[in-house]
């Protein structure tokens, strides 16, 4: 396993775990951290022994945003020339499911990073916000788009224009997170979810992820058609034969591609 400076990387069974590890900066997302997270996620994506990824931070902060100190003095030409943070798009190209386990602050780029994941499990201590407006800027890692799709215009405008943080309960009520769990159980519960996902056919989970994500980028008609084509294609997989045979024979399936 490669060594990284800003993250910890380990496996838990079939789950690949990436932990943001810049405690002194509350896991602020600098360029080096971005490169490491994307590289680690790509390595897990390519590893057939891994069926699902979990991305987490510390008890105090999932991530308190993009690294303000690294950006503060740059010009717009610098930011454009470097295409600042475009590298995060690599994370959205990971095809295995990616679970964010969020405790404490998920602010600015931290909230945006959590939203790049496929589902968010939040500790009851989690706080989500887009406080960029307080710095004279706006989201830059897709937050205005993903937040609006997740929570709708009213709440997204409220968060983007006022910089107000929402707690885990409001985040769940708004559809931003899928589950809220006690803080001391966060990692175990997120690993449980990821282990369950990893126990299923990877062929089917790739298709499920692609189908849901298609809903964010196309019309209903095209999305439904795309889903149907994926569904038909799955009938070419051994795992579909095994899954349906196991149901008929009243036994647990043993998926080959997992
Ligand atoms: N960047 C750099 N350093 C940070 C950041 C950050 N985002 N957040 C915290 N830190 C550092 C602090 O500077 C401090 O360091 P030091 O000890 O050297 O002074 C250390 O982490 C601890 O922070 P605090 O002392 O502030 O801890 P508190 O518990 O008092 O407060 C907060 C915690 C409320 C989370 C506070 O740290 C805070 O408000 N942080 C900034 C939150 C924020 O504004 N985030 C948005 C950043 S901008 C952004 O994410 C834009 C994303 C898109 C950019 C894309 C560009 C293309």
UniProtKB/TrEMBL annotation:
GO biological process: fatty acid beta-oxidation
InterPro entries xref list: ClpP/crotonase-like_dom_sf, Enoyl-CoA_hyd/isom_CS, Enoyl-CoA_hydra/iso, Enoyl-CoA_hydra_C
Pfam families on file: ECH_1 (PF00378)
Catalytically driven reaction(s): a (3S)-3-hydroxyacyl-CoA = a (2E)-enoyl-CoA + H2O; a 4-saturated-(3S)-3-hydroxyacyl-CoA = a (3E)-enoyl-CoA + H2O
A single GO molecular function term of this UniProt record: enoyl-CoA hydratase activity
Cited SUPFAM superfamilies: ClpP/crotonase (SSF52096)
Keyword Transferase among record annotations: no
Family: Belongs to the enoyl-CoA hydratase/isomerase family.
Function: Could possibly oxidize fatty acids using specific components.
Annotated protein name in UniProt: Probable enoyl-CoA hydratase echA8
Species, as recorded: Raineyella antarctica
């Amino acid at each position: 396993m490669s060594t990284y400076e800003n993250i910890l990387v380990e496996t838990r069974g079939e789950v690949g775990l990436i932990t943001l590890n810049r405690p002194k900066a509350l896991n602020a997302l600098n360029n080096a951290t971005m490169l490491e997270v994307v590289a680690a996620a790509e390595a897990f994506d390519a590893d057939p022994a891994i069926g699902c990824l979990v991305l987490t931070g510390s008890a105090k902060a999932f991530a308190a945003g993009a690294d303000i100190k690294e950006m503060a003095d740059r010009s717009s030409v610098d930011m454009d020339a470097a295409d600042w943070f475009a590298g995060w798009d690599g994370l959205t190209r990971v095809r295995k499911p990616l679970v964010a386990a969020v405790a404490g602050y998920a602010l600015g780029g931290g909230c945006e990073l959590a939203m790049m994941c496929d589902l968010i499990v939040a500790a009851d201590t989690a706080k989500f916000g887009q406080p960029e407006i307080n710095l004279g800027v706006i989201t830059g890692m897709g937050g205005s788009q993903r937040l609006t799709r997740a929570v709708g215009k009213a709440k997204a405008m409220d968060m983007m224009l006022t910089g107000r943080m929402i707690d885990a309960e409001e985040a769940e009520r708004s559809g931003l997170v899928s589950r809220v769990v006690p803080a001391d159980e966060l990692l175990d519960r997120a690993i449980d979810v990821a282990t369950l996902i990893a126990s299923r056919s990877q062929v089917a989970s790739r298709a499920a992820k692609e189908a849901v994500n298609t809903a964010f980028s196309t019309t209903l008609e095209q999305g439904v058609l795309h889903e149907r084509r994926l569904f038909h294609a799955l009938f070419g997989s051994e795992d579909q034969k095994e899954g349906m045979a196991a149901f008929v024979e009243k036994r647990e399936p043993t998926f080959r591609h997992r």
